[in-house]
Design goal:
Chain A is built from four helices and 15 strands. The first copy, chain A, has about 190 residues and is α+β, with helices and mostly antiparallel strands.
Chain lengths: ~190, ~190
């Protein structure tokens, strides 16, 4: 099957509590652009992300609010700002490094939540049934072209609210020259 | 077969003429560290590399001198300084972008020579004979681990002076978590 790639640049998810501190009590994030996954959006708001070595002046926030704030960086980004490179599934903050966030109204010292996101693919229930994919399966994606690559260990996440989309980060895009919205071949990894 | 990976960070090769301008007439590069390929070395000297959008303050020079100056960047680096991402085999400067180099004694406006280097593997004649590899063959490299990847389109360069080594850049390393000097499995790509 061929699935569309969505390339994730560095971004931040914020909890209600942290939005209150960074942007002011009861502040509501505003929509810059809707994302492919229903209800998810890139916000107009950005925060500064400060690591031990250096900082990113303005990283975009993705909404809606999450239970815990989370900073998703590429490995290149982690090295630049001086935090360890830790690969995690979104939401899994075990032994993840911390950074400081600075907004227009305040500052938050995170306790963990900084990660390189594991490769994953959002799969609609319809596609999962049709293609025989189960939640948690590991898939492979073949990127053709002059910098051809096969990415393994892509975690299938099946949900009826999901739109089919393979999420890769900017390091993976720059290593393979895959483009945002490119359709690539996906298959179950042979072991 | 298993071959050692050498990860190339951004670097510059300089011609005699450009060393004369950047460092002074007849200046000789000095050895910071010998590289795995015989006669190749990382120099103590660095230059500033200025692109249309931003600059790298100090990029290391690799010696010895080359016929033409060449700047090897990752795609991430190209995007950062604002030059097009152009994949080329080393030495092939057709339609490559340009940057300005600044050294302690002068400035050079390159005419092309900025590239993302194509994946390639140095293969000794001994290994080539043993493994049935011909100069120009395309090889695949399997990187195991949590961010497992297969890199295709690795150009085999066979020469009796070469030491077996797979060259990848920092984007490829950060996308796969392969480490410098890690031994990885190499095989002929199936088409």
């Amino acid at each position: 099957m061929f699935i569309e790639v969505g390339i994730s640049a560095r971004h931040v998810h914020l909890s209600r509590k942290d939005i209150d501190i960074l942007f002011g009590k009861d502040y509501q994030l505003t929509v810059f652009k809707d994302l492919k996954q229903v209800g998810q959006f890139a916000a107009n708001e950005k925060v500064e992300v400060i690591g031990p070595r250096s900082a990113f002046k303005a990283i975009r926030i993705l909404g809606p609010e999450r239970k815990k704030s989370q900073v998703e960086l590429s490995a290149t980004d982690c090295i630049k700002i001086g935090v360890p490179v830790v690969l995690r599934d979104s939401g899994d903050h075990r032994e993840t490094p911390s950074v400081k966030l600075v907004g227009p109204k305040g500052t938050v010292e995170l306790e963990g939540g900084v990660m390189v996101a594991s490769r994953h693919m959002h799969v609609s229930t319809t596609t999962a049934l049709k293609e025989g994919i189960n939640n948690g399966d590991l898939l492979c994606a073949e990127i053709p072209g002059e910098r051809a690559v096969v990415f393994s260990n892509i975690l299938a996440r099946v949900d009826e609210t999901y739109v089919d989309e393979l999420h890769l980060d900017t390091d993976e895009a720059n290593a393979s020259f895959v483009k945002d919205k490119q359709k690539v071949e996906i298959y179950k990894c042979q072991k």
